[in-house]
Design brief:
alpha+beta; globular; CofE-like fold; 3-stranded antiparallel β-sheet; 5-stranded mixed β-sheet; 60s Ribosomal Protein L30, Chain: A; 6 helices; 2 domains
């Protein structure tokens, strides 16, 4: 069966406190769709963060000494740098306009994932990543299972990340529920009958990237995509399963 990515149009601009699960379910029904067993629903991080009230007014932030020093080095607003530090475990690289950190969720990203784009308000408002993205995905999954009366459903929260060794951003999973994010093919044969030794597929990231193609990165306004006929292993996975152990990270 071909893998199909179905956009969910008509989702309004999400505000803090909105019932995101109900809004998305209504939009799915309105276009004549219905979630099916085995579907994967990919949700853009920004609508999750907005619904959870992760918008911060920079005018309420008081930068500390460390933030002021790093702000001079990065040529960034000290208040924004203060938020980056609060959201991070460690600062890894700095250059003008960019701070690379290990986010407190464990992955490496630029500026702790904090963003101005597509946030209502003036330039003083920024959006943080969800506080507990796995928990957010789990709750969305639970609600959609109830609404659509299905059991086998996976939910991925995706975001756009750069990569140290290639140009361009790609969609990656930062939270998930209802699936194992990796597919271990070690021990399986290749086309020539040779046994695969190291092949472990980042299934959740591949699906997150596929959905990102449909979502777009600018003003497309498609924050939710249904992926149908995807090959994945249902189960209880989490973001932590995707994170390379520090001892194996050759880039740090």
């Amino acid at each position: 069966m071909p893998l199909t990515c179905i956009e969910v149009p008509g989702i309004p601009l999400i505000q803090p406190g909105d019932d995101l699960a109900a809004i998305v379910a209504e939009a799915i029904t309105r276009v004549g769709e219905h979630l099916r067993e085995g579907d994967v629903v990919v949700v853009a991080q920004k609508v999750v963060s907005k619904a959870e009230g992760r918008i911060v007014d920079l005018r309420t932030v008081s930068p500390g000494p460390d933030a002021r020093v790093l702000a001079r080095e990065s040529e960034k607003d000290p208040r924004l740098v203060e938020l980056i530090l609060r959201e991070s475990n460690e600062v890894l690289r700095v250059r003008p306009g960019l701070i690379i950190v290990e986010h407190r969720h464990g992955f490496v990203c630029a500026n702790a994932g904090i963003d101005h784009s597509n946030v209502l308000g003036d330039e003083e408002h920024v959006l943080l990543l969800p506080a507990h993205p796995d928990r957010s995905a789990l709750e969305l999954r639970r609600r959609w299972q109830e609404i659509f009366a299905i059991d086998n459903l996976a939910v991925i929260i995706n975001d756009s990340h750069g990569r140290a060794w290639r140009l361009g951003t790609v969609g990656v999973a930062i939270g998930l529920a209802g699936m194992h994010p990796l597919t271990d093919r070690r021990g399986d044969p290749d086309l020539m009958g040779r046994t695969l030794q190291v092949t472990v597929i980042g299934t959740a990231d591949e699906l997150a990237a596929a959905a990102s193609v449909v979502m777009g990165q600018a003003d497309e306004g498609i924050p939710v995509v249904i992926i149908r006929e995807a090959r994945y292993q249902p189960g209880e996975g989490s973001l932590k399963d995707l994170l390379r152990p520090r001892a194996q990270d050759l880039f740090r």
